[in-house]
Each structure stands twice: as structure tokens, then as C-alpha cells.
Design brief:
With 431 residues, this protein is mainly α. The chain has two domains: 313 residues, Na+/H+ antiporter like domain (Na+/H+ antiporter like fold); 41 residues, no CATH class. The chain is built from 16 helices and two strands. The protein has a two-stranded antiparallel sheet with strand order 1-2.
Length: 431
């Protein structure tokens, strides 16, 4: 029996992510229409508008689209880091047995799309885009799963979420290793020292939100000027967020009863505003509540709405607007990306999971059958947000191939999503 303490937050997470998927889809369609409308020049001019500052020694003057991709997406990566830390320490990745299922699925879903890419791609100019089809978009995937309702067992929803987290870890490593520019070791060493400092303070129980936020800003700048993609600052700083509460449940309950009793003895006057005694008592309650809450859990909860309903749709709006031009699009490359997502993800995930089952490395729930795994494997081919992000890094100055990669991501994601949906929809549920 799965613990209710895990089910309830997880169901809220699925609802948030699936709702975000709908908004993400709407933003993407709007961007496509806008970019190809008579007002397409306004679309391109908006995102290419430069913002920033220049000094004698430092220049940080970038197009608006790069501020979104490098700045806002750092918050997205920060949330990924929080989820990874929680899952590794307390959730679906905290034991080898739990980790095996999503890990092996993710490995298949990473290795095969890259193999398909290199098999089909014979153009050295597009070879840098090999990592584009390795990513899965958790928001779109869970949106499809939510529409299917009870056609998808709960254990399979847990799998695709844990799978996407492992997938995101791989994408972060790929970005750090293969899509970073010339390194400035001095800046990176300073960033490393600052990270060590906040990790040490967290370990000693000296976590402070404002100090951590200040260090996060500094680390972002240091990584940017150090040659590593600055969004990775979000992941690194997420690991510095404390997960342990400062107050136990017993102490919190005892203190809450004491404070509630104090409120009863405050002036019993029904006024629109509180008395000084009431304000002081409520303030003590808030202090104890902050001590009882896990800082990581609280921050994850606070950021989910902003990331799901603002940052990701804005990212889609800024990046999904490719211009359909028969003269500039490389349709061979479009085909390569689409097939790597559609064929690579499905074959890779399904074959690795089936092999793990035969070798008794993983044990699946009785309610999960082969068609469930195959359907989820196809849905994992929806690689929207992270795929577009990697495409932007791979072809930042090559707009023709960037637009071709975007179209390939769109086609591969749509075909994969529809195929997975149909397979799961027609699948018979095992009683």
C-alpha cells in the first residue's frame, strides 16, 4: 500500500504539471501563429530586443530571448534540482530498487535517440544537435497521462515522473559538459568555493533564505562569465536548500496548542484588525510554522506555480515561434530530429525495461502490462521544453538549423504523443 503522505502531494504535482502542459501547448501554438502572421516581424523584434548593461570591464547586454533562456530558465533548473534532491533523499530514487526502473528506462530513452540521430544524420553542420532528442517534457507527458485518467495506473505515473527527473539530470550533465563555452577557471573556482560555503552552512543547520538567494545571484554571474551555462546555477544552488525541519512534529503541536491557548486569552474583541497581543501571538505561530516546514518542500511548493504557469509558457512563447520558410528549412534535419524522438525514445525505453524485467532487475506492479510500458515509452518522445532549450544552445547563431530543429521537435513530439495516447487509450485495464 502506497503511503498517503506520498500520494496526496504527488497527485497535486500531477495536476499542476498537466495543467501547465495545456498552457504550454497554447503558448506554443500562439507563438507559431504569431511568427508566421503579418506581424511576424514584431515577434522577432521583440525577442531580439537587447537589454542589459555595459561597463569598461563587464558587458552583459543580451537579447530578451536569451535573458529568458539564461535567466528565467535558471529558476526552472532550480526547481528541477529541488525535485531531484527530494526524490534522491526521500522519494522514488532513494533506494537502488526504486531507482532501477526509471534509471534503466531513462538510459534507454537517452542512448537510443542519440544512436538514431547519428545513424540518420550525415551532415557535419548539424552534428552538434545530437542531444536535442534525448529529453522528455514532463509537463506535456503528464498532461497526456491526466487526460487518459484511470487508463494509466498510479505506479506508471510515478514511473514517468521519476523517469523524467533522471532524464533531466542527464540533460543537465550534457549541457554542462558539451554546451559550455571557453572556461574561465578563476571565476569557476570562486563559484565552487561559494557553493562549498552554502553547502557547509546548510549541513550545519545554518540555512538562511536571503543569504542563499544572494549567493545564487553571484554564482549565476560567475558561471556566466566562467563559460558554463548559467542556468546550471539553479541546479547547484538547489542542492544547498535544507530538507530537514528545525522543529519536530511533537514540539510543533505542543507549541501550537500553547499559542492557541494564548489567543483565547487575548482581548476578545471582534475588530477588522488584530490587537497588538494578537499580532504578537500570530507572529510566534508563523515563526514556529516556518521552523516546522521543510525549507526545500516549502520552496518547491512556492515555485511550482510560477514555473508551471509563467516561466515555461513564456519560454515556449519566446522559443516556439519558428518561421515556416521552404527556402531555409533543412527537411533532412527535421526528419532526423523527429525520428530520433519518435523511434529512439520508444524503442530505447521499452527494450531496456523489458530486458530489465527478464533479468529480474526490476519488478513491475501487477496492474502494469507491456502496452502500458509501450504507451509511456512513446509519450516520453514528447521532448518539448528541454529539447528546444538544447536546440537553442546547439544552434544559437545558426537560425536555419535552429528552426529546422524546432520543427523536428514539434513533429516528433506530436507523433509520439498521439501514438502513446492511442496505445494507452485502447489498452485493456487488468483487474
Amino acid at each position: 500500500m502506497i503511503n498517503q503522505r506520498f500520494i496526496v502531494p504527488f497527485q497535486r504535482f500531477i495536476h499542476s504539471e498537466s495543467s501547465s502542459g495545456v498552457l504550454l501547448f497554447a503558448a506554443s501554438v500562439f507563438a507559431l501563429i504569431w511568427a508566421n502572421s503579418p506581424w511576424g516581424d514584431i515577434y522577432r523584434a521583440l525577442w531580439e530586443y537587447h537589454i542589459g548593461f555595459k561597463t569598461e570591464h563587464i558587458e552583459l547586454y543580451k537579447p530578451l530571448v536569451l535573458w529568458i533562456n539564461d535567466g528565467l530558465m535558471a529558476v526552472f533548473f532550480f526547481l528541477i534540482g529541488l525535485e531531484v534532491k527530494r526524490e534522491v533523499l526521500l522519494g522514488e530514487l532513494n533506494t537502488r530498487k526504486k531507482l532501477a526502473f526509471p534509471l534503466l528506462g531513462a538510459l534507454g530513452g537517452i542512448i537510443f535517440p542519440i544512436l538514431i540521430f547519428f545513424i540518420l544524420n550525415d551532415n557535419p553542420d548539424t552534428a552538434r544537435g545530437w542531444a536535442i532528442p534525448m529529453a522528455t517534457d514532463i509537463a506535456f507527458a503528464l498532461a497526456i497521462v491526466k487526460v487518459l485518467g484511470n487508463k494509466v495506473p498510479f505506479s506508471l505515473k510515478v514511473f514517468i515522473t521519476a523517469f523524467a527527473i533522471v532524464d533531466d539530470i542527464a540533460a543537465v550533465l550534457v549541457i554542462a559538459i558539451f554546451y559550455s563555452s571557453t572556461l574561465n577557471l578563476v571565476y569557476l573556482f570562486i563559484a565552487f568555493l561559494l557553493l562549498c560555503l552554502v553547502y557547509y552552512l546548510t549541513y550545519k543547520g545554518l540555512y538562511n533564505y536571503y543569504f542563499t538567494f544572494l549567493i545564487a545571484i553571484i554564482v549565476w554571474f560567475l558561471l556566466f562569465f566562467g563559460g558554463i551555462h548559467p542556468t546550471l546555477a539553479g541546479v547547484f544552488m538547489a542542492f544547498a536548500i535544507a530538507i530537514k525541519q528545525k522543529a519536530t512534529t511533537r514540539d510543533f503541536v505542543a507549541k501550537s496548542l500553547e499559542i492557541t491557548d494564548q489567543l483565547r486569552h487575548c482581548d476578545d474583541i471582534e475588530e477588522p484588525i488584530l490587537t497588538k497581543d494578537q499580532i504578537h501571538t500570530v507572529s510566534k505561530m508563523k515563526q514556529w510554522l516556518s521552523r516546522y516546514e521543510s525549507p526545500l518542500q516549502r520552496m518547491e511548493h512556492q515555485l511550482h506555480g510560477m514555473v508551471s504557469f509563467f516561466i515555461m509558457p513564456v519560454f515556449a512563447l519566446a522559443n516556439a515561434g519558428l518561421e515556416f520558410s521552404m527556402d531555409t528549412l533543412d527537411f533532412q534535419f527535421v526528419w532526423v530530429i523527429a525520428m530520433a524522438l519518435f523511434v529512439g525514445k520508444s524503442i530505447g525505453i521499452f527494450s531496456f525495461v523489458e530486458l530489465a524485467k527478464r533479468l529480474n532487475i526490476v519488478t513491475l506492479s501487477r496492474e502494469v502490462n507491456k502496452r502500458h510500458i509501450l504507451g509511456i515509452a512513446f509519450i516520453a518522445g514528447v521532448g518539448f521544453t528541454m529539447s528546444l532549450f538544447i536546440a537553442g544552445l546547439a544552434f544559437e547563431a545558426d537560425h536555419a538549423h535552429l528552426d529546422s530543429a524546432k520543427l523536428g521537435v514539434f513533429l516528433g513530439s506530436v507523433i509520439s504523443g498521439i501514438t502513446g495516447f492511442v496505445i494507452l487509450k485502447l489498452n485493456k485495464i487488468r483487474k
